[in-house]
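chain below, 544 aa
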Amino acid sequence: MPITDLLERNAKLYGEETALIEINPEVQEDARVTWKEYELIQPTSSVAYRREITWSVFDEKANRVAHLLLNRGIRKGQKVGILLMNCLEWLPIYFGILKTGAVAVPLNFRYTTEEIDYCLKLADVDVLFFGPEFIGRVERIAEKLNKLMLLFFVGDACPSFAEDYSFHVSNCSSSQPKILIEEDDEAAIYYSSGTTGFPKAILHRHLALSQSAQMEAAHHETTKDDVFCCIPPLYHTGAKMHWFGSLYTGSKAVLLKGNSPQSILEAVSQEKCTIVWLLVPWAQDLLAALDRGDYKLEDYTLQQWRLMHIGAQPVPQSLIRHWLEYFPHHKYDTNYGLSESTGPGCVHLGVDNIHKVGAIGVPGLNWKTKIVDENGELVAQGDVGELCVKGPGVMLCYYHDEEATNEVLKDGWLHTGDMAMQDEDGFIFLVDRKKDVIISGGENLYPVQIENFLAAYEKIHDVAVIGLPDKRLGEIAAAVIQVKEGMDCTEEEINDFCTGLPRYKRPRKIIFADVPRNATGKIEKPKLREIYHGNRLVEEQNRS
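prediction:
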């Protein structure tokens, strides 16, 4: 089915029930409004601490967006961009685009002006919805964009180079647009994370989106009574497809505009959240705050919180063991996926498999996996190879990039570029990115394995292992270590701790520095390599 059918079903079955709640911790808590009250003011997300809409209003708002686009000549298959921070307008705009048969194109809020320009051009975007945080970036290219597309501003004080979304959409019909949409129709373009250069445009059909909704609900046993706390950015497949579990079950979700330990604990407590998806850095920050005694769990209503899950990057076993010390009743799941596989879930641990923490899990609902060597042949159980996945959520293509598409799509299988191995119970363990493997003196070193080992050291907050050039060995493993706040750590301590690793796996260089991560929590290793490949430390190592 097309994903829009689920929203229309919810509007009919659960029309007056709350669908979405937006929490903005930067605003005073007493500034709370419903959508009807909110209609009387300009739609800027900084107006209220708490806003909410029902399923019927959600659907009506999406219909208005659809009619706005249809009135401006947008037709099936055309592309419409979204450049917004998480807010209550985000999802109604997204579904309004889909209701026209057009293709939604969410953009990363961290994109520079040049990246915005590049991505809009790559996807042939005809309309762009953007928010107040992006006025400066869009204005620099507004003259060019206005010749190519419509610009709608979502917020207060509309700039002169754009049209006021709120004014125009309020004059549009709230009736269902009469556009036939089928599950094989194109639905959305998502961009790769861009950690290896400019991002690729990943085209998905409606079937990929609707299957991810069914899969998410099944994997996390989501029911109508659950309340999902969504913190990561909605432009990314991870956040969107996890929220699709709420869409599938008609359950409530909270869009939290903040990821501090305090804002997470308060939102879960106040809104009675039962499911929370965290990125590794946020879980680390929350645990560090609890360790320091900054917050007491008994001060919050948390007994209903039943599931914590993490995705988007490898999860250290030590982190989950630490988490269960504070939340022993929590079920836990980790989700593996790529934007090319409609985000998380093509492989998942499963809420009853906490004894396998460290694995990314088993094939998700309706998915198949295999691990192959460089010739595409299956590897023996326990051997390392490239993970391939196949299922209804595999992308149609990289838009406008046939060569790149053919490199990763072979006979319906998506070659992920991730190195993995499977144990005797069928659980898959992620070893590393194919491009991140370090070849040192002829030995393959997998940074994720070294990172997981180092993450268990009590003074380490975050760690990234990269390869640095070496005249004798070709490459050496260097550990970039971010020490926990208020602690001191020495290179000697790290080296002593690393005696627990085989000698060839021990980092040859220790660098104390912050570990950069992107908006989805992935370590930005290209940035680290760019910083340290020419570092004086490497030159000294090569001379020694």
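The chain has 18 helices and 28 strands. The first strand starts at residue 18 and ends at 23.
thats it, cya
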